[in-house]
Amino acid sequence: MKRRERESSTIISSPGVHAIMNRSEENEREIARLKSYDPNFSKVLFLDFVSSIYNKFYTWYGTKDFKNLSPFFSNTEIQSSIHLLNKRIVNEIVIGSIKISEINNLETVTGISVDIEANYTINIQDKKTRYEVVERWYFNRKAGVLSSEPEKMRKLSCPNCGAPGNFTDNGECQSCGTLINKGEMQWFVKKHKILKQEVFITKGLAHYEQERGTNLPTIFQPNFSEISARFAQKHNFDWNSWRLNFSSNIATNYFLKIYAAWSTNKLEDVRNLLSDRIYESFMFWINTYKKAGVTNKLEEIKISNIQAVRIDIDKYYESITVRIFASALDYVEDSSGNIEGGSKNNARFFSEYWTFIRRNGVEKDTYNLSTCPNCGAPADKMGQAGICEYCNTKISNGDFSWVLAIITQDEVYAG
Ligand SMILES: [Zn+2]
Ligand SMILES: [Zn+2]
């Protein structure tokens, strides 16, 4: 799809597959080291934490609410916002992708740097400008600290009592009175830098580039066969039959249903299958197309192959990544049916890496995609937040069944 190619074109550099794999193996080793002294560490939850910090940082930038971030940012970062108080407002923040670029397990401190692709609108006086950016954020935590449980990682909350983040200027929780020293109970942002910032333009929305990554070799997780065997053993099933079942009942069905919803601008039909981040990013693109008076359609989608490439298991979540090879009639048309880009006649071949997550212990491998995996009612009232109105439970965290968490284009996938 056009939309995501555009996103991936913002990638900083494109090292060869070998360099990517070396980097990915090194990160793998460092995550394993981190988990050896912090068994609670969950990449899924850490990235949720990053996304909520990122969002609040820009939402509160230059406002008095920024003080609520005091336990989570270095003094230098805090100062830079204070002097912009009331001068600059940032809104409509959409995160396209987040990935860990480096992990450092040092003697006294653990450091994780994260690359974030996003876009947002900056308002200075009355002038609004929308930017697309790539930023690198550096998170630090005192070595040896245990990660908080999911509830405290998901929202910006007090790492001591769990109350919603409400802090004084010097970082004291207004609920429990605890002074939260930076990095002693939770990650904090040491610094962030903008690697790339461009004014966002919608002019080229209907322009199709040649697919670049479809023929690239698949990047498998190092030792994937051992890891998948361990995963099978943990669940007491045969890996090959589980994999085939996952491919047809989960990956294929999700892929077809999600792209059907995308093509008809009806994301509410699949809200129960999407994580919040994916949903927000999809909504942003659908609205961008709408504003430009066009729709992106994918028709006659055919999946030719699905390869399982990666499994991650931590204390709370398990995730599986598959590479999906497919073809579709992929085009952009305006409201009177004129084709502005792509083709209604010639199928386009592409591949994407899809990552699904679910909470440990929920093992319904076949279920109805149209019902709430918690209460069984129709999944027609999930709202924007992915909360089922019948049982009032949040579904989009993957706590009851698989949700699609990440889509990565083949030319940027790095393991
Ligand atoms: Zn507290
Ligand atoms: Zn429900």
Shape: globular
CATH topology grouping of the largest domain = Nuclear Transport Factor 2, Chain: A
In the residues, how many domains can be counted?
2
Element string (H = helix, E = strand): HHHHEEEHEHHHEEEEEEE
CATH class membership of the largest domain: Alpha Beta
Bound molecules: zinc ion
Distance between the termini: 21 Å
- Strand % is 25-35%
Measured on Cα atoms, how large is the radius of gyration?
Answer: 21 Å
**How many strands appear in the DSSP assignment?**
11
Low-confidence stretches: 2-13
CATH architecture of the largest domain: Roll
Task: Explain how this protein is built.
By secondary structure, this protein is of the alpha+beta class. It has two domains: 38-199, Nuclear Transport Factor 2, Chain: A (Roll), CATH 3.10.450; 224-409, Roll (Nuclear Transport Factor 2, Chain: A), CATH 3.10.450.240. Helix content is 27%, strand content 31%. It is built from eight helices and eleven strands. Strands 5, 6, 7, 8 and 11 form a five-stranded antiparallel sheet that branches. Strands 1-2-3-4 form a four-stranded antiparallel sheet. Strands 9-10 form a two-stranded antiparallel ribbon. β6 (317-334) and β7 (339-342) form a beta hairpin. The two termini are 21 Å apart. Mean pLDDT is 89; it is low at 2-13. The structure holds zinc ion (2 copies).
